[in-house]
Known about the structure:
Elements: H1 2-14, H2 22-35, E1 38-43, H3 50-59, E2 79-82, E3 90-95, H4 105-109, E4 116-119, H5 125-132, E5 138-141, H6 143-149, E6 169-172, E7 174-180, H7 184-187, E8 190-194, H8 198-203, H9 205-214, E9 217-223, H10 230-240, E10 249-255, H11 267-285, E11 292-294, H12 297-306, H13 309-315, H14 317-370, H15 377-398, H16 400-418, H17 421-427, H18 429-436, H19 444-484, H20 497-518, H21 525-584, H22 589-619, H23 623-634
Parallel strand pairs: 1-8, 1-9, 2-7, 9-10, 10-11
Antiparallel strand pairs: 2-8, 3-4, 3-7, 5-6
Helix pairs in contact: 1-2, 1-22, 2-14, 3-12, 9-20, 9-21, 10-20, 12-13, 14-21, 14-22, 14-23, 15-21, 16-19, 18-19, 19-20, 20-21
The structure holds guanosine-5'-diphosphate (GDP) and magnesium ion.
Amino acid sequence: MGLRLKVLGDWLKEHELLDDGADESVQRLVDQLRSDKVMVAFVAEFSRGKSELINAVFFAGYGRRIMPASAGRTTMCPTELGYEAHLPPCLRLLPIETRLKPQALLEWRMAPEQWTRVDLDVNDPAQLAGAMEKVSEVLHVSEDEARALGFWHDDRPEDNPPVNADGSVEVPRWRHALINMAHPLLKQGLVVLDTPGLNAIGAEPELTINLIPQAQAVVFILAADTGVTKSDLTVWRAHLATMEGGEGTRFVVLNKIDTLWDGLSTFEQIDHQIERQCAETAHTLGLSADQVLALSAQKGLLAKVRGDDVLLSESRLPEFEQLLGRQVLAQRQGMLVTAVRGCVANLQTQARRTLAVRRRELSEQLLELKGLRGKNDSVIRQMRLRLEQEKADFDHSASSVLAVRSVHMKLLREVFKLLGSGTIKQELATLSAALREPGLKLGIKKSYASGFDNLRQVMRKVQSLEGEIQAMLSHSFRQLNTEHGFSLHTVSAPDMARFEIDLAAVERSHMQYLGVGAMFQLSRPEFAEKLVRALHARVRSIFETALGDIEIWTKSSSSQLNTQLRERRRAYGRRIEAIQRIQDAAGGLGERIEEIDDQEVALDSIDDKLDRLSRELLTAGGAGASVAAALTTVA
Length: 635
Ligand SMILES: Nc1nc2c(ncn2[C@@H]2O[C@H](COP(=O)(O)OP(=O)(O)O)[C@@H](O)[C@H]2O)c(=O)[nH]1
Ligand SMILES: [Mg+2]
């Protein structure tokens, strides 16, 4: 779809039918089609089978386990699997020591040199699995160091990591891992987040307040042999219980159903027991029974590796894969199809508008030339002088457009300033100071509320400036339309309400996070500092998105004006040239008239082709279905 869109864009550009900013917005959408990600996060207490499920769904084709999955804490750091075309297959690891510095994870992502890179040989499953072992590497540090890194809490000794005989504490060696692989599903934009258990998730605030809430789907895993334990419930409450419906989707998986296959019970008895356990689980979590999927990741993986269809079906893994494919990727592609439709419609409008302008200029010229029939040289010379004068007048008055532009730019600069990082710093200053204050912060909820109120005010100010710009543009467009017979339309300004909603979601994720026991961690300065940085980074990205939308909007208004000025100048040039040629070789009038007829025919054929290209693009959509197919064929 991206490619076809580019073809349409290039073709329109070649015929100069697009406004200035248009190919940029096409490029933006093409890039988005290529780089848009949909994240599925696997969240659970350790040893529930997250890594095994990832192996079964994504890596069975390698004929073995790729992500380390065994008893105990194997996944020590959060691991993202995804695909970026500009990188070779590799594993990138961020050292745990970065926790001692204030930068947020989002900032470390932008510093590739800080990550340790291990190249992966995707044709060698053993090398691949060996490299992946790195995500379970640990370091032995003193208790003080463990405390500084956020893994040791004197107030919650039961959650502390094991202490060795020599008094040293085992902590993860890496803070975060990024795996880059050209797996078909990852190439389609899927990003899988594998998380360590409760303890380690809690140590990285950004997982809780940024990554997990932004995931399009979160898979929560329980094990049939342990049932719902206290720590499972803590994870559920902290990360999934209050997830909002619409934006993301939650799946609950009851894993390890093979532990119920005791070889003595009949299939009916086992099925019955599985149903009962699903119902109990659903009840405990406050869901309906059909929201809990029972399966065996391990048997699913084994069945795929061995090519055992019976076992695969018994593992019930395929049901989970279908759900994942259907709901997640199809949903994302649906969104993209809508975006492409919008973009094509916009290109069509622009191109049609330019074509209409050209048609009108041509028919006026035709009238002008027909009026010259049978006229003598001096009338023709008069006509030419008049045209040249008209052109000079036009060029002169077109400079008044510059005045409009400068007011427009002034208002825009105000908008840019409002959405800049200086504003964020300023509006969140009180909240940041409150967070950084030593000791327990009981009034922190109020500080959040007022900080976010400030940010919402900023969005409203931006909205009202947009209104001013809009009013000014529509006034001057109307004027230009009457004066010059232009057909300028104002484009409606992007609605900032959307970003207020995004801000509210950020506020909610912080409140929720602090509500589930992270509040006392806030008394630690380095933790508070991280929270502040993570907050700023997230708000900044919302403000930047708003800015991007505003830039596109502004460009579409000013480039329309450029297009119409350009077409008008060109028409003057053509009219003067036609008359010049008639003057030079008297008798050429008939030919000139024919030329104009030809040009009108050419416009008709461009119009037809525009129709055809757009239709082709819009019917090429049916993407959703292919995704579910990919999921099942890949494995
Ligand atoms: N019997 C059984 N064991 C499983 C299943 N899935 C995972 N396991 C085992 O449970 C242990 C923990 O799995 P792992 O994927 O590392 O859990 P994680 O910590 O949630 O990533 C490993 O020994 C797995 O082999 C399953 O479906 N059935
Ligand atoms: Mg794991």
